[in-house]
From TrEMBL:
It comes from Ephemerocybe angulata. This is Squalene monooxygenase. The lineage of its organism: Eukaryota, Fungi, Dikarya, Basidiomycota, Agaricomycotina. Residues 444-477 have a biased composition (Low complexity). It is found in: Endoplasmic reticulum membrane; Microsome membrane. GO terms for biological process: ergosterol biosynthetic process.
Amino acid sequence: MSITDSHYDILIVGAGIAGSALAHALSDLPSYRRPLRIALLERSLAEPDRIVGELLQPGGVIALRQLGLEWTLEGIDAVPVKGYCILKDGQQVHIPYTEGHEGRSFHHGKFVMRLREAALKAKGVDVIEATVTELIEDPHDAKRIIGVHAKKPATVEGGEPEKAQYLADLVVIADGCFSNFRTAVMGASGFKPVTRSHFVGAVLEDVTLPIPQHGTVALVRGSGPVLLYQISEHDTRILIDVQQPLPQDLPAHILTNIVPQLPESLHAAVRAAIAKDRLRRMPNSFLPAVEQNGHSCKNGILLLGDAWNMRHPLTGGGMTVALNDVVLLRDQLISMPDFRDAKRVNQALKAWHWARKPLSSTVNILAFALYDLFGAEDDLLEVLRAGCFAYFERGGECVDGPVSLLSGVAKSPSLLFTHFFSVAFYSLYCLFTRPRLVTPPPSSSSSQKSKSTLLQPTSISTSQPTSISTSTLQPTSKPTPPKPTYITPTPLQYPFLALHSLRVFWAAILVFGPLLWSEIRWWSPSDTRRRNRVVAFAVLPVVVLVVVGFVALGAVGMKTGALKAELFPELAVRGVGVGSA
């Protein structure tokens, strides 16, 4: 069945965090503009169930306040977040937020439903349950998108889905990390997401974290970091970073390799969560943002949220960046008289791209820099990780500066650069002055070799590639761990440590440099046309300077020769005579 076409000013695909917030934001326009007609399409308006997008940093709360949406955090059993606690080898560092800032943690689905409620209440917004199947190109201009084809759920049980066509002056794609339209919008100008690891998640019931109302990051050996935060009065989310390739038996991997390194108070809750519920996983992907006005990009359409830009969720910065993007995009769009003006829209997209950089680049770089430090098993990065932990222990600005970046309050890549390399230099200082761990605490591998593990999975079955369930878990005896051994460097070791410090500093550059470049670069490596143009503009001034330099040197040389002949004619004559002889 075909439904009559509907035409809107703006059509948003995806009623998640970014899409719902943008629909509400654009409905609240200055009085000199007529109310916009906005369509918000979502394939399912049921409450979503995800394991990420559950911690909103203080910077995200500030963005909600700017959008008039701070009330959406109420009535969803949200928990205040006042900072972080980092655990490493039995030690902990408290990193509180500065200046009384607070974040919030919650069940993702409950927050999304509140944002959808805001969109439903917004003037001029139609929230429609429909699955977008295809973009509609302008019949007179194949580069321009003028709407979407969609399917609405059948009105009667067992019936056929109803086909619909929605037209709009501007289409916004906010369909998340698994976007179906990213490539269609960006073409050769876009990136492809790169997945480096997965977060494996579960919900722990009625546990007490080392510092209540604080996110907890546990640094474990042989795996990526473990993140824990309370998402309701009784529920606490645990996210375990598992690097690729994924183990075939994830429950056994977690029980034998991860759980023994977590605080003792969490062991029973983790066992119960794995026995009771399925483990779920989400990819941790890297997708740098590039300008959306390249030669192969479509006009009349733009990407927003995870469909355009992703970073590792370790720092919980995704929603903060998305909501800040909505604030800035609203400010660009509300002053635009005609969304069909491709030139004006592309100019606005370019301005938006660079206006978001102070926050987005800070969060993006920090997320993967911390992940590389916290999740690496490399000896060089281990020095940086220990130095980072020691840097936080100093307190004061060594904590306040980094946590202001982490919280999304400080929007300053230069401040991030300063603290990152301060950590690098302090790591080198610690390399010479602090005792070094020689015998590490017992790892899970030693537990396996002794055949005496904390937990023994006895009946584990897998049902789906993205969900793992277990049945019976039997606790066995816990081995007595050997005490770690430390030694202090001696002056005889200083020459070796000096060479080692150079390698450590180079490793720090290799961590930060590519991440910084990914934020500075505004084009995709696959966009050869734009890349060649950038290279040409970069090389041309150098070539011109070299040519001018050679010409200038030649002119100077000729003038010097003429002056020399004029002042010392006898030398010129003698030179000619000698030459002729």
